[in-house]
Amino acid sequence: MKYSIHVNEVKTKEGNIKGFATVVFGDSFKITNIAILENPERHQLFVSMPRYRSSERDENGGVIFKDVCNPITKEFREELYDNILEAYEHVINQGKEQGQIEKTQSEMPEFSVKVTPFERDGSNVCGLARIYFDNQFIVNNVSILQGKDKLFVAMPAYKTKQIDEQGKAIYQDVCYPVTKEFREKLYGEVMKTYEEEKEKKQEEQKETKNDLQKEKEKSGQFQSLPDRETPFR
């Protein structure tokens, strides 16, 4: 899978964040907000993928954070993280604020999607999707939302410190399609899979309802049978 890595160094000496990386798959899909951190005890750099605050809690009641996206296989994780750190070291050694590494293979990345439709009162979220790139990298928390006129796909985003003209917080996508062609292809596949899974779910619910109705009818017939006298022995 073709991808390029772009790294920016963080100049501030406070904190353990040393830089941020952006990865682009096949010139078509961008992953942002990948942090390059330093372990202060070991003085060792490591890569942290963008994360989001989940509704789950750990044993101590603390908030559990989950990766928005991450490599699936050990091999690709090691390859990608090593290349990100190599790009960062190149920035440091060259005295530049930015650095880039590119690995070339295919142009547009291969992908597959999985969608879970659901309904929730008072929410415009109609489903959640996962995107798998070349069975090596996964993007979680992709939403199918109900707009004013139609459904649309929303990529995972984070809340920025900026506000719009109406005073509302501005959200920035963590990862997203770069080109119009790939966006249409990706979003089209997500919506197609959503409709297919929604239809399957409706059929399953219909079958379950029919089965329950049959059981209810059988139970009613059994209860309506006339009482018969049981002969004494």
Going by CATH, the homologous superfamily of the largest domain would be Stage V sporulation protein G
In terms of DSSP E residues, the strand content is 35-45%
Structural class by helix and strand composition: alpha+beta
Relative helix content: 25-40%
CA(first)-CA(last) distance = 84 Å
For the report, how would you describe the main beta sheet? 6 strands, antiparallel
Q: Quick one: overall form?
A: elongated
CATH architecture descriptor text of the largest domain: 2-Layer Sandwich
Total E-strand runs: 15
CATH topology of the largest domain: Arylsulfatase, C-terminal domain
List the helices and strands and how they pair.
Elements: E1 3-9, E2 17-25, E3 29-39, E4 44-48, E5 51-57, E6 63-67, E7 69-71, H1 74-94, E8 98-103, E9 111-117, E10 125-133, E11 137-146, E12 151-154, E13 157-163, E14 169-173, E15 175-177, H2 180-223
